[in-house]
Specification:
heterodimer; A: 576 residues; alpha+beta; 4-stranded antiparallel beta sheet; 17 helices; 13 strands; elongated; B: 109 residues; Arc Repressor Mutant, subunit A; 3-stranded antiparallel beta sheet; 15% strand; globular
Chain lengths: 576, 109
């Protein structure tokens, strides 16, 4: 209750300043009159009594100032005044302000752009229910068809093992499997289509894939277990949000419509939510999902679904609540080893048994998906992150020097303020405020710059794919990162001049002849600016040299001689 | 003989004000006079300390103020003790007694 009364009293004081002043004046005058009357009654002459009363009180302005500063609204008012003052000071030197904001925008923008990529490729979780519970069997990075080795080699499995585990998931909440690679298919709209087919990415998944991932479908349903019970029987597909918007014109009645995939008519039963790309992440995400049992019909190839067929699936699972990877690892290894031994045929030698006993398939946390992209880009992105941090530090050092010079030039102003009775804290706070305003403005411009830069980077990384799962649009995490970086940057380069002010003496600069910017701190004060410049030059030279070498290497790779004429050559692939 | 009012700790001044107001509502000068009289001149509070202290206590909700007519028919700002102020007075008084007793024990030892 008291807090509200305090707040409302403060607001009333803020907006009723004249009334408050009047009341204070009246109270002080009343006090002085009462005191002087008491002294007169004690025998003093009227003028002497009045004078004595005034001396006892001291400066009316000082008393009023003390009374006023008991409320929170004075600090708020001071903050507001300091803000306006800082803005005025920054606008007074527009050239400096512009250059500062620009260099900050570049530094902060570069950091944000790289962080956007890091967020997309490394950090982002799948848009599914409780992604932390998802695991994949092994890193699952290679794709294709495999035979002649033990199951779980290269994290590849056959359909019968996948079905076995799906029916009896053991300690897992549920198990699913999916084609180890995306397949390009030709798609036409309608049941008896005429005209050419468009090529899209497709993905074959098991019946428990969508249920286990648990993403809320945008329309309809996902592939269900009853869609994958027998080969070739259920031509149903789920389309992606992106495909639904672009190629199906966001038709609200799309469920039940037919699309022809590689000549096979299939019924659309669901649309995935936006930004859902499944668990396998690649630069070009799938637009359509079909049951694994449709493999032979849709892909127009021999069936992989026989009991002793090839290995072509990766697998994953969702942990039961409270379970950990280590707990369920043993069960999975047991299942794999049992399967291998069961399919050995004939006598199994002791050596072979020992070999089988060593088979293990590490469970890998898959909350941010299974991504070949991450494997490829993790190190380069982290290196780039370090580089842009260095660039930002160079910009900070530059600005610190600038602000230091400005603080020295404003020596007289600061000394005057100190002499008039301002606290050092207030002046230091105002200088930090200038720095923070600059970095906030730089951060805002930086976000815009980062968006442009991130888009260009994604284009480069995706290598010309028409649509990719990477997005340059900043999400909460990226914006929080930018805000944090701006704040730290402002504090970093505002610190040097602020500390210098804190050590200023009030008197020397007020001397009549002190028009020049005297380094009142002695030779010690000249060390910091020089150190900053040296550091800047050193880091810049290193970065420039590295950049130059990288560019030369890139150019050399482009111009590499392969021993044949590469002009006017095209690479074309027909079907699969 | 009056000590410099600055020698009194800020917390003590607030406690003395609360006690003075517990008897009856007063305006600023009345309080200063009462404190000086009852302390027999040991404490002389000047308006530079008294009025900010009163403003602080008003923000904390321990006193509230009203404009009334003083004894010589002049408009003056009177301060009254609130319920919260009474409670604060009890707490401050108890704490002061504890401190005084502790100091006395140390000085006697």
């Amino acid at each position: 209750m008291e807090i509200f009364k305090n707040i409302s009293a403060g607001l009333r004081a803020l907006f009723g300043r004249t009334r408050v002043e009047r009341e204070m004046d009246e109270e002080l005058r009343g006090f002085m009159d009462a005191s002087s009357e008491a002294k007169q009654r004690a025998g003093m002459a009227p003028e002497a009594a009045a004078r004595a009363a005034r001396i006892e009180m001291g400066s009316t302005n000082a008393v009023k100032h003390h009374i006023r500063s008991t409320g929170w609204e004075t600090s708020a008012e001071n903050l507001w005044l300091d803000l306006r003052y800082s803005l005025r000071m920054l606008f007074k030197s527009p050239g400096f302000t512009l250059v500062a904001i620009l260099s900050l925008a570049l530094g902060i923008g570069a950091n944000t752009a790289i962080f956007t990529l890091v967020d997309n490729v490394i950090m982002q979780q799948l848009p599914v229910r409780q992604p932390g519970q998802l695991v994949s069997f092994g890193k699952s990075l290679s794709g294709g068809v495999l035979g002649g080795v033990d199951i779980s080699e290269f994290d590849m499995y056959g359909l019968d093992f996948a079905n076995q585990l799906e029916k009896n998931p053991g300690p897992f909440a549920s198990v699913f499997s999916y084609d180890s690679r995306f397949r390009r298919v030709g798609v036409q709209l309608g049941e008896h289509p005429t005209g050419p087919a468009t090529q899209i990415q497709s993905h074959l998944v098991s019946g428990s894939y969508f249920n286990t991932l648990g993403a809320p479908m945008f329309l309809g349903r996902g592939i269900q277990p009853y869609d994958a019970f027998a080969p070739g029987r259920t031509p149903v597909v789920v389309v992606s949000y992106h495909y639904w918007r672009n190629s199906l014109e966001a038709d609200a009645h799309v469920l039940g419509k037919i699309v022809t995939i590689n000549g096979v008519p299939c019924t659309i039963v669901g649309v995935t939510p936006p930004r859902f790309y499944g668990i396998l992440l690649a630069t070009e995400p799938p637009d359509i999902w079909a049951p694994v049992t449709m493999q032979a019909e849709l892909m127009r190839e021999p069936s992989f679904l026989a009991a002793a067929g090839p290995y072509w699936l990766h697998m994953g699972a969702r942990l039961a609540p409270g379970h950990t990877l280590e707990q369920d690892q043993g069960w999975l290894d047991g299942q794999i080893r049992a399967y291998v031994l069961a399919h050995e045929g004939g006598q199994v030698s002791a050596d072979r048994r020992a070999e089988v006993a060593r088979i293990t398939e590490p469970l890998v946390s898959a909350g941010s998906g299974v991504s070949g992209m991450r494997q490829g880009f993790e190190s380069p992105l982290l290196i780039l992150m370090c580089v842009v941090v260095l660039v930002l530090l160079v910009a900070c050092a530059n600005l610190a020097n600038f602000l230091l010079a400005r603080a020295i030039a404003r020596q007289r102003e600061i000394s005057t303020r100190l002499a008039l009775g301002s606290t050092r804290l207030r002046i230091v706070r105002q200088i930090l405020m200038e720095a923070l305003l600059l970095s906030a403005a730089g951060g805002l411009c930086g976000v815009a710059l980062a968006w442009v830069a991130a888009r260009a980077l994604i284009q480069f990384v995706a290598g010309g794919a028409p649509f990719t799962s990477l997005t340059a649009t900043p999400d909460m995490r990226v914006l929080a990162f930018t805000f944090g970086v701006s704040l730290l940057t402002g504090l970093l380069f505002g610190l040097a001049p602020a500390l210098r002010v804190a050590r200023t003496n009030a008197t020397p600069a007020l001397n009549a002849n002190a028009r020049t910017a005297v380094a009142a701190g002695g030779s010690g004060a000249r060390v910091l600016p020089r150190a900053l410049v040296i550091a800047q030059v050193a880091v810049s030279v290193v970065l420039l040299a590295a950049a130059g070498l990288f560019l030369r290497s890139l150019a050399n790779i482009e111009k590499q001689d392969f021993g044949f004429n590469r002009t006017n050559l095209l690479v074309v692939s027909f079907g699969e | 003989m009056g000590q410099k009012p600055g020698d009194m700790v800020q917390g003590t001044l607030e406690m003395l004000i609360l006690k003075t107001l517990a008897l009856e509502p007063m305006h600023g000068y009345g309080m200063a006079l009462r404190i000086e009289q009852v302390s027999q001149g040991v404490f002389r509070v000047n308006p530079g300390s008294l009025l900010p202290a009163l403003a602080r206590m008003e923000r904390a909700g321990h006193v509230k103020s009203e404009w009334r007519l003083s004894e010589n028919n002049r408009r003056a700002k009177f301060y009254l003790l609130t319920a919260a102020g009474r409670k604060a007075l009890r707490q401050e008084a108890a704490s002061w007694d504890r401190q005084a007793a502790a100091i006395a024990r140390i000085m006697e030892a």
